[in-house]
Every structure is written in structure tokens, then in C-alpha cells.
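Exercise 7. Given the encoded structure of a 338-residue chain, write a plausible sequence.
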């Protein structure tokens, strides 16, 4: 850590009144949350994988550090100094949650403990529900090693909250979509969309803007300097829908030709992609509405795709700029959580 970075951290809020968000994982979601917090006047810091991209983020006023999940932060106590809200969007690796594996003691030993901890998990922890509607009371039954590790990471973050007497929000996410490379409109334009059809199959999704709004609502309403009950939230829109239905809607919206329909049973898919279709569930979002007061800007994929279509002319250049700044997204695989 350079002397300039250390000075930027220690002098970030000389008045001691501005909240500070530290986000492990400034990827597709984390970076948007960081910018939204900046707009509210917060101090913001966090991690990304590449040193040059961390430098680019620092030019935006985001104090960014390189973290690859294999090696700890260079000076964690200094990096985390002053953190009031801490979010982890880094998924577990083949061993465990790398943030807790490498930094649980650093978080626990902060002189002033954060008033809010958040962890981005996956609706994949529920496993297959045969298309039934479920809420947060559903017993998790993860079917893959990845999702079993996610469930264990949830439990470890909740345990840390108990240890610190601080609230922890666990956010179970389906597929995240939005502008700049995460939507079927751009897949159609780029020629990489596939029209996979499996009758009876639905997926859940959330627009990244609504996810950010939900996180901000929890950061403001759930934060507490003393013990509070842990909260688990399903973060999704109102309408689970088949992937092919969403693709058809996107194609009609922009006047694009659909790729040929491929029956799921005979489609050539990777094992990773095929697993998406082995689990079927409909996720309820009542808790974020009732407990956090969230009002979704994009309650279904239709509103979300219309907003993306309105700006799709600039999407290619915007996507390139976003990737150059943000680097690899720690939560890139979350479509598998649908």
C-alpha cells in the first residue's frame, strides 16, 4: 500500500460522520453499489482482481485494492479502517469462502466494528423445488458442491454476526441482468443468443438496479451498532418466466431474428449450462417489500428489457468501458443461481 493510499484512507472522513462501505468484489453488482453509495456521500472502498483496474477505480474516488482470493490484502487493518458497512460479493472457491478464510480475524478485530454486514449468496441453495413457489422459510437443499459451499458461507457470515453482535444480511440472488453485457438484447445483437426450450421450466431474475436498491435499503434499515436478528432475503422480481419467453420478447422488442429453437433434450450444452435446467422454482420476494420497503423499478423482465432497449445503441462501448474499469466480476456466474 502506497503512502498516498494510506493517507486517502485515513483522511477519508476527518469529521468521522460519513459512513464507509467496503465491498469485497467490485464487479458487476459491487461496483454499481459502490457508485450509488458515493452518490449518497459515502466513503467507498473495496477489492478487484487486477492492480491496474484497482488504480483506475481509485481515480474515481473508490479506494480499491487487489484481492485474488488466494492471498490476503497487503495491509488489511488499514484497508478496512473506518468501515461501517461491509459487503462480500465474492463467491466461494473450491475450498471455502476466501474472504472469511483470509480475513475473518481482521474483520472481527476492527477497533470500531461495522454496523452492517452483507453477503451475496444464491437461490441455488434451495435446490430443485419442482416449480413450486417458495420463500425464505424453505429448507435449503443444495444439489451441487458450489451451492453447498455457498450455504456454508452463509452460515459462517451469520455466525460472525453473532460473534460481533452485528446484523448480517444474506441476499439470495437468482440471475442478475442489466445493461452492459448482461441481457438477451445484447446477446441477440452479438449473435450469441441460444433459443433453448424446455416446457414447464422457469427462471427467476433481478435487474441489477433493483438489486442495488435492495442492498441500499438493507444498509440503511438493518444497520445497528448492537445485536440484531440476522436476515435472509430473496432478491428477485415478481415474475419467474421461461428463458425462451424472455428471448422471444427481447427479439420482438428490437426487431431481431430469433435463432433456431433447440429442444433442451437434444441441445448441446456444457454440464454447467445444462445444470441451469435441472432445477425449477418460483421465488417469492415478499420480505424485501414488507421489511425493507423496496419498490421494484423493474417488476418483470418486460420493464427491464424496455429500459435496456432504450439505451442499447451505446451498449457496446459502455460494456467495453465498464469491463476496462471494473475488471472480472466476482459474481459473474450468478445466472446459474436462477
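Solution.
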Amino acid at each position: 500500500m502506497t503512502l498516498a493510499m494510506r493517507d486517502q484512507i485515513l483522511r477519508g472522513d476527518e469529521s468521522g460522520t460519513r459512513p464507509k462501505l467496503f465491498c469485497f468484489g467490485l464487479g458487476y453488482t459491487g461496483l454499481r453499489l459502490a457508485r450509488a453509495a458515493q452518490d449518497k456521500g459515502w466513503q467507498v472502498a473495496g477489492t478487484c482482481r487486477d492492480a491496474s483496474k484497482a488504480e483506475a477505480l481509485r481515480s474515481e474516488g473508490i479506494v480499491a485494492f487487489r484481492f485474488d482470493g488466494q492471498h490476503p490484502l497487503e495491509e488489511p487493518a488499514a484497508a478496512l479502517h473506518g468501515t461501517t458497512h461491509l459487503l462480500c460479493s465474492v463467491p466461494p472457491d473450491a475450498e471455502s469462502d476466501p474472504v472469511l478464510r483470509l480475513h475473518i480475524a481482521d474483520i472481527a478485530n476492527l477497533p470500531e466494528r461495522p454496523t452492517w454486514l452483507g453477503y451475496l449468496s444464491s437461490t441455488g441453495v434451495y435446490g430443485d423445488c419442482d416449480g413450486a413457489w417458495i420463500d425464505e422459510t424453505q429448507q435449503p437443499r443444495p444439489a451441487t458442491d458450489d451451492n453447498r459451499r455457498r450455504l456454508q458461507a452463509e452460515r459462517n457470515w451469520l455466525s460472525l454476526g453473532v460473534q460481533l453482535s452485528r446484523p448480517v444480511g444474506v441476499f439470495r440472488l437468482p440471475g442478475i441482468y442489466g445493461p452492459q453485457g448482461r441481457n438477451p438484447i445484447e446477446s441477440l445483437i452479438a449473435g450469441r443468443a441460444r433459443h433453448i426450450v424446455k416446457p414447464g421450466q422457469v427462471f427467476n431474475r433481478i435487474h441489477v438496479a433493483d438489486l442495488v436498491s435492495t442492498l441500499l435499503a438493507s444498509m440503511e434499515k438493518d444497520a445497528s451498532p448492537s445485536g440484531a436478528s440476522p436476515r435472509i432475503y430473496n432478491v428477485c422480481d415478481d415474475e419467474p418466466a421461461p428463458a425462451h419467453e424472455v428471448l422471444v420478447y427481447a427479439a420482438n422488442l428490437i426487431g431481431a431474428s430469433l435463432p433456431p429453437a433447440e429442444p433442451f433434450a437434444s441441445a448441446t450444452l456444457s454440464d454447467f449450462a445444462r445444470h441451469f435446467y435441472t432445477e425449477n422454482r418460483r421465488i417469492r420476494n415478499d420480505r424485501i417489500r414488507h421489511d425493507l420497503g423496496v419498490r421494484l423499478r423493474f417488476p418483470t423482465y418486460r420493464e427491464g428489457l424496455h429500459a435496456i432497449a432504450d439505451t442499447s445503441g451505446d451498449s457496446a462501448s459502455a460494456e467495453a468501458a465498464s469491463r476496462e474499469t471494473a475488471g472480472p466480476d466476482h459474481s459473474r456466474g450468478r445466472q446459474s443461481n436462477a
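Remark. The first helix runs from residue 3 to 10. Students should compare their own answers with the one above.
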